[in-house]
Amino acid sequence: MDTHTLVVMNVLLYVLYASVVLVNSRITGLSRGTRWFAGANLVRGSALLMMAAGASLPGLSGSVAAVGYLASVAGLMMLHFSFTELLERAPLLRMLQYALLAAMGIGTVYLLFRPSPYPAGMLLMCAVEAVQIAATASAVFLFSGGEVGMAAWLTGASLSVYAALLVMRVVVVLWFSTPGYPVVTTGMTRVWLEGTLVTNSAITFGFMFLSAAKQRVELLWHAQVDELTGLLNRWALTRIALRELSRCSRTKGLIAMVMMDLDGLKGLNDSMGHGCGDAVLQAVAKVLQETVREQDSVARIGGDEFCILLPDTGLAEATSAAERMRSQIDALVLSYHGEEVRARASLGVASSADCGLSLQCLMDTSDEALYRAKRGGKNRVIAAESVDASEEPA
Q: CB–CB of 83/111 below 8 Å?
């Protein structure tokens, strides 16, 4: 396959990649970064056409090729932006990309006014693009997240191979003064065009694969998280609790559960509106997240009801932790529309030492202790094993 055919195939595929990504975006709703990606392919395709046309326009070859070099660098900058937007890292290495584009622009203008027999424009373009692609690959490898590992590695590897091809072009251009340069550069151009066909296909597939993987992670996150507070929901807590109970069964460890209910939230909603109640729930959720340990799990399982799972924790330690939560919530003061709002909470604690490794028993027992705390005056902590008949209200 000759060079001209390879150029035409690459340009057609650039247009195809842009179209496929845009159509895929409309069908799946995966829009993050797609406009940058489609634009990058169209600009890079145009740049390749200009560089190829420069070789067949003797009077304008230098200026047309120079504009093509600049457009190619701009296209790779857009490609970088597409991945950083997809990964929600929009500011990441932007200044580097702008600096590289500026360097390419300055170099292009200089070469237009001071032409050189040496292929300085090609050398500058390949060197700049190698850095651009390496930066994009680094962003994909470092910031994709472990949940999308396969998609990230495929995309990052494709970008790395493309960067390697550009480095090879830089090395070949540096041989300009050697006798065999024309043959070597012709061969390298063919290798680069053929490699571009493969790597750009892989990069496009990788972009869509990474988009789908990111969406899957986000959907899973939304399925597990309470949207108002950012805490786990009942379904997610149940999954975690069953896993922890299974682990405790193997290790003979203990696990504790705290049920918590806010005192008087309904009256607050009735008197000040649900916006105030939502603000209280969000503030309490933040307090709980800051109070518990890293290995603990906090969930909102009802309107104003929370559940905290404490692995490797006995009843006494869990009761102390619950008292810290109650104390922190008791000290919480919010300002809502100029009015001071306070929160109170009742908590019930249960341990697997008394309930066994049964999730339902843990929930029922801690829930029973919670309602004893409610009936006993509210704003207090009751541990299940400490409850006896003397604590019943008269």
A: no
Q: Report pLDDT digits (tens) over 309-353.
A: 999 999 999 999 999 999 999 999 988 888 889 999 999 999 999
Do 33 and 118 belong to one domain?
A: yes
Are 108 and 70 in contact by the 8 Å Cβ rule? The answer is: yes
CA distances from 42 to 21, 37, 45, 251 (A): 12, 9, 5, 58
Q: Residue 351, SS3? A: strand
What's the token pair of residue 84? Answer: 């950083």
pLDDT digits (tens, 9 = 90+) for 109-133: 988 888 878 888 889 999 999 999 9
CA distance 24 to 30: 8
Question: Where are the alpha helices (H) located in the chain, listed in sequence order?
Answer: 3-28, 34-54, 61-86, 94-113, 120-143, 149-173, 181-224, 234-251, 265-272, 274-291, 315-330, 352-355, 359-375
**Over the stretch 187-233, which tens digit does the pLDDT of each residue have?**
998 999 999 999 999 999 999 998 888 888 777 777 888 889 989 99
The dihedral built from the CA positions of residue 84, 98, 199 and 23, taken in this order, carries a sign that is positive
- At which of 157, 191, 222 does a domain end? 222
Residue 197's domain spans which residues? 3-222
Closest CA to 272 of 341, 333, 331, 330: 341
| Of 94, 213, 72, nearest in space to 155 by CA | 213
CATH number at residue 375: 3.30.70.270
Residue 258 lies in a domain: yes
Alpha-carbon span 226 to 42, nearest angstrom: 41
pTM of the model: 0.68
Which residue is associated with the tokens 């003397």?
390
Cβ neighbors of 300 (< 8 A, separation 6 or more) are: 226, 228, 229, 231, 232, 233, 281, 285, 306
Q: Are residues 191 and 281 in the same domain?
A: no
Number of domains comprising the chain = 2
For the chain, how far is it from start to end, CA to CA, in angstroms?
A: 95
In terms of Cα–Cα distance, which of 87, 83, 79 is closest to 38? 79
Q: Is 213 found in the same domain as 283?
A: no
Q: Which of 201, 222, 243 is the last residue of a domain?
A: 222
Q: Let me know if residue 229 belongs to a domain.
A: no
Mean pLDDT of the chain: 88
- Residue 227 belongs to some domain of the structure: no
